[in-house]
């Protein structure tokens, strides 16, 4: 059983608090108790203000996905419309949000604070970005009162819980709510509440903000959940759920430049000699040359997408996808060279595409797929594209085309297939699936496609791909599916977003979530394609990634690089 390694004075305070509750009548304040509590609060304030100063050199990617909802009797709050924002956070410029340009035009309007406009019913991504700090101006005793509540575990991390209340006349937009402070360095790891009071124009929203430990003592903002179901005095009823994710902290130019100091040069003594890997015959036929040029184009694209944080580095999730593809290849006796590999796009909108012999699925698509047969259907569609010779545009083999402003990524890169190509690939995909281990469970995949079609009008941003194709409605599979029954807890057509993959915000590495199967009791718990609150299993950092983060953050303390330009 884990013990609490708290300072002796604080342990005495907590024991005293228990005795007070048991007796029912609190005695007069104890000076030692107040002194120990004040020392802890002072450390919390110093840690938080140091973090605000430290992260100024970083420009992580920010993704905000919002679903407006309406209440229903049987299914609870269901989506009626959605909004999507993707960009970079410029933390050195007052939490500025720099959007990616998208084909959907979702970033045409920027406003000052996170509120729903009176007539246009839109949201401000920069306002949501404010939720990564309790107070971006810094915590202090001048503007806030702190009250100890209890101690609690968040995953593996032991925490002290405090209520934070703005003092009278503290000013507008002060945090009012609760903070969770880990008990080792006294860093805030979670805070939950609202900014108070409301601005003159607009309104603040409630939020629950979480941080992830990337190095000893360093907790970076990573996940924010926001929700409103109550009437607003100014705007009437505001009902929505929103998730904000941050990642790509280690992509900042100032961080990447440090790699130059870590280049390893092979020693001429005491090391294995360099092998000559040249072939006996280096000449390539025209067909081989064409394939090599296509391979170079594909690799250029994959490298560029990873360098700007949109593509996850190779990892264990890829191997799961590769296994399903191998099942399709082996069962259909296919002979492909080179082998087909899979990668994961970091974003939420549901999309899939092929880059050469690499199949890319979005994180959001993998999240909502209910089972392996549904995953196989998505991969079969893209495998069919490869088999039919729908090759990559070789213009990407010219390196100058990969030098572009990251905000224009979705305009420069395009892997969307024509309707004719998609129809041909769908027919081929059905053939692949009918000769695969998944042939007896294609009804499940068809059910997913039915559910997706049913939500297409309510969630246009979720199913609007940026780079590739919408999950195709393979008609032959859809006909095998049973009738869609939203109220039947035994029928799971699609999962909520965030059900499969977890992301390390420092190095962008992804992994499959380790969750226990839950028996659904009510139809409202199905939540297909919907958003749910974050509730992280917090862990302390360790290993290579933490060492790299610690070194980078240490340099930021000694030499600030605020206001640097993104390439």
Name the shape in a single word.
globular
Count of distinct strands: 17
Q: Give the strand order, joined by hyphens, for the main sheet.
A: 3-2-1-12-9-8-7-6-5-4
Q: Order of helices and strands, N to C?
A: HHEEEHEEEEEEEEEHHHEEEHHHHHHEEH
List unreliable stretches of 5+ residues: 1-10, 12-25, 104-120, 253-269, 559-567
| Estimated structural class | alpha+beta
As a percent range, the share of strand residues is 15-25%
Q: Sheet bearing the most strands, described? A: 10 strands, antiparallel
Mean pLDDT comes to 83
Number of separate domains: 2
**Ends: how far apart?**
50 Å
Tell me the helix content.
25-40%
- Based on CA atoms alone, the radius of gyration comes out at 26 Å
Report the total helices: 13
Write a structural description.
This protein has 567 residues and is an alpha+beta fold. It folds into 2 domains: 210 residues, no CATH class; 214 residues, no CATH class. The protein has 13 helices and 17 strands. The strands form 4 sheets. Strands 3-2-1-12-9-8-7-6-5-4 form a 10-stranded antiparallel β-sheet. α6 crosses α8 and α8 crosses α10. The protein is globular, with a radius of gyration of 26 Å. 39% of the residues are buried.
Short description:
The protein is an alpha+beta fold.
Tell me the layout of helices and strands.
Layout: H1 8-23, H2 31-54, E1 61-72, E2 76-90, E3 96-99, H3 125-129, E4 144-154, E5 157-166, E6 174-182, E7 188-196, E8 207-215, E9 218-228, E10 231-232, E11 236-237, E12 240-247, H4 253-256, H5 286-307, H6 316-331, E13 341-345, E14 352-355, E15 358-362, H7 363-368, H8 372-387, H9 409-412, H10 419-434, H11 442-455, H12 475-478, E16 501-503, E17 510-512, H13 544-558
